[in-house]
Write a structure and sequence with these properties.
heterodimer; A: D-Maltodextrin-Binding Protein, domain 2; 2 domains; globular; B: mainly alpha
């Protein structure tokens, strides 16, 4: 390159950068916002559309939505940014990553922004079940956004054929129904399982549902102590393992991703999975299906799941305030209702279910309300300090028991020992 | 260069020109390979900084943790098994395919394309295809085994078969890539060698063992180095197929490292694991270049 041209090029770019920067600083507050996509459908379009709508209504603020991959990839990007001094201002991350984010000193509690009576009404409008994973140490750190819970999908046609009138409501009824719903061919090979609970990736979530139904609480509110080898938890895992041993549930580890497909292919009559699959199942089921709350043993119960809004610490106060405004705007009843219809996630406040849009949708499609009704029995999703590491210990235990490597009691005892080792330093 | 300038100036400018030409590559290598490696080595002697707690010098503690971590040993064992299976299998298969499609026959182009297709596909796509193959009850494997009257099997969900299943995917993916190198080498062989062998009355096997195989040695070395690196480097399919499960049965070193570094955020321990992985790979590469290289005949 000619030296003159090069110099001129350098100068112009420097000037452009400098001027651009000045111009922006004077007029609008930029808020980079990271979000993940964890269910099917054109989610990025919906989020980008919402952000644009917000920007139009708020000329002083420029929300910049960035699709950052899965939940796991999004937290990697956000925390890497935090460590290098350039985190997003707002992000949607797993509600269970709360302690990880606090330990990294990455996020800011929301309490400081909740000033007026309207703000307080906004914060208390969320279902209490969803706020459980947002609060610790007397502070609220996240606003519920794309939240889910586990529900039971059942194939009405197959149930009817097996002479079962309604969805099973207790463990005993479920085991009984699963037995009736299991079909074998002449060679003794199972062609249709009664039920299945996936055990890859989210095995701990499913076990927590069973343990909750059996009356156990896995972790304390401070997230620094767990009781994984509680006899009630062992019983819960034994129930699961026995279903597989009895041949009414597939052997070995059941893949999370193919579980909805197994259900749609009528290879299993009942499945447990997230409400987030509702729209997918509705679109693709060639048979009549129903959605029910998970069955009860001592009680009903299902952990919540999904993501919350967080505000990051390393941002200017103006940016943080703008992010808070955006979060409040995004969680208004009309928008929460629209989000729920578009995705299948549970709307996060009672007001959202009172909106005409969601009322009309639920009237047309009643299963959309099951997850909300189950929230009355909801518990906080398993979350501790070093959450992913403790969760892995629990996931390994579930898989070891299901594949026959260890007895449920031994597997959970090992997981407890590992969790204890990790959490000791947080007490 | 103006011709008026003296010879000495040209001589003096030569190394500078050389360095300038090397500079872009050198800078990139330094910035993205060497500096991070050195930084990782240093980090492995410090604790993981968390929030307001900065990193402190802990000496060899991260390495001690590593040696006591049963999951690490499991990952190492799995990885050695995986490498031991994928390397010879993928190279053997590549050689076989290359020799086959090197023949003059109808449909040769189609065969070459078919063998090479897995290489063109991204690993994530490949893994998703295989996820369907392995799906219990209605997956492709199940349909075949069902038609033959064999019992149903959960390939990825059973610890005894999961590692074998992911190994097979890697072999299938890599063989086509290595085949290209062998095919190129085979095409470069002098056809008079084959004629000479034919005149001597050498069998197909003798020709391969005495002529083709020795002449392919440089390619084999190159492919071997790549295969070894890939055996420790490719984990994309693990993420799609099993995520290391069931109960760590398919956990490979790099996936374990990723989990420790970016899921558990224990960056110090992850650094120690990285250093070990670098040492192992570096050691193997040196061994290959200095020991095996001597046995390779270059023309």
């Amino acid at each position: 390159m000619q030296r003159k041209t090069f110099n001129r090029f350098l100068m112009t770019s420097a000037m452009a950068l400098g001027l651009g920067h000045l111009a922006l600083a004077q007029t609008v507050t930029e808020v980079p916002f990271f979000y993940p996509v964890a269910v099917g459908g054109p989610i990025t379009k919906v989020v980008d559309g919402l952000a644009e709508e917000f920007n139009k209504a708020h000329p002083g603020i420029q929300i910049k939505p960035v699709y950052a991959g899965t939940y796991q990839e999004t937290i990697v990007k956000a925390l890497t940014g935090h460590k290098s001094g350039q985190p997003p201002v707002a992000a949607v991350l797993l509600s269970t990553d709360l302690f990880t984010l606090i330990d990294e000193d990455a996020i800011q509690p929301l309490d400081g922004y909740v000033k007026t009576a309207a703000d307080k009404a906004w914060l208390s409008s969320f279902y209490p079940g969803f706020l459980l994973n947002s609060r610790t140490g007397g502070k609220t750190w996240g606003a519920p956004f794309q939240r889910s819970t586990i529900v039971m999908y059942y194939n009405k046609d197959l149930l009817k054929a097996a002479g079962i009138a309604k969805a099973p409501e207790t463990w005993a009824e479920l085991a009984e129904a699963a037995k009736k719903l299991t079909k074998k061919d002449s060679a003794g090979k199972t062609v249709q399982y009664g039920m299945q609970i996936p055990s890859t990736g989210y095995g701990y979530w499913m076990l927590q549902a069973l343990a909750t139904q059996n009356g156990a609480v896995l972790a304390n509110d401070a997230g620094n102590a767990v009781k994984l080898d509680d006899p009630k938890v062992i019983e819960a895992l034994e129930y699961w393992v026995k279903l597989a041993k009895d041949g009414v549930h597939p052997q070995g580890v059941v893949e999370w991703g193919t579980t909805p497909k197994d259900f749609l292919e009528q290879k299993t009559a009942i499945m447990w999975t997230t409400t987030g699959n509702l729209t997918n199942v509705r679109k693709n089921a060639s048979f009549d299906f129903g959605v029910a709350m998970l069955p009860a043993q001592q009680r009903r119960g299902s952990p919540t799941g999904g993501g919350n809004f967080y505000i990051f610490k390393k941002a200017t106060p103006a940016q943080q305030q703008a992010a808070f405004q955006f979060i409040q705007w995004m969680t208004q009843p009309e928008r929460a209702a629209r989000w729920s219809i578009d995705t299948g996630y549970v709307a996060t406040s009672a007001q959202a279910y009172d909106t005409p849009a969601l009322k009309a949708y639920a009237k047309d499609f009643p299963p959309a309300l099951v997850a909300r009704d189950q929230l009355a029995h909801g518990v906080a999703e398993f979350s501790t300090h070093e959450n992913q590491r403790v969760t892995k210990a629990l996931n390994d235990a579930v898989q070891a028991a299901l594949t026959g490597g260890k007895t449920p009691a031994q597997a959970l005892k090992d997981a407890q020992a590992e969790a204890e080792r990790i959490l000791r330093s947080y007490r | 260069m103006p011709p008026a300038r003296g010879k000495r100036t040209t001589m003096n400018q030569k190394p500078i020109t050389a360095w300038l030409l090397l500079l872009p590559a050198l800078l990139l290598l330094l910035a993205f390979t060497h500096l991070p490696a050195v930084a990782t080595f240093i980090d492995s002697f410090y604790s993981t900084p968390r929030g307001s707690r900065p990193a402190v010098w802990v000496g060899l503690e991260n390495y001690a943790v590593m040696f006591e971590d049963p999951v690490f040993w499991r990952a190492l064992r799995n990885n050695l098994w995986y490498a031991g299976a994928t390397i010879p299998l993928s190279i053997g298969l590549a050689l076989l395919m290359a020799i086959w499609v090197n023949e003059r026959m109808t449909g040769r182009a189609f065969l070459r394309l078919a063998f090479f297709t897995p290489t063109v596909l991204p690993m994530i796509a490949v893994a998703n295809i295989w996820l369907f193959f392995y799906t219990p009850q209605y997956g492709l494997l199940e349909q075949i085994s069902g038609a033959l009257g064999l019992p149903s099997h959960n390939w990825l969900g059973t610890p005894s078969t999961a590692l074998g299943a992911v190994t097979l995917v890697a072999v299938w993916k890599e063989a086509g890539f290595f085949m290209i190198f062998y095919l190129a080498a085979l095409q470069g062989l002098n056809p008079s060698l084959r004629e000479a062998a034919a005149i001597e009355g050498a069998s197909r096997w003798a020709y391969f063992r005495r002529v083709q195989w020795p002449l392919l040695m440089p390619t084999t070395l190159f492919v071997l180095v790549n295969a070894v690196i890939n055996a420790f480097r490719t984990v994309d399919h693990i993420i799609v197929l099993t995520r290391g499960g069931p109960d760590n049965a398919t956990l490979l070193l790099l996936y374990h490292l990723y989990e420790v570094g970016f899921k558990f955020w224990d960056t110090a321990y992850a650094s120690a694991l990285t250093v070990l992985l670098l040492l192992v790979l570096g050691g193997v590469a040196l061994l290959q270049f200095f020991v095996l290289d001597r046995r390779v005949h270059y023309r």
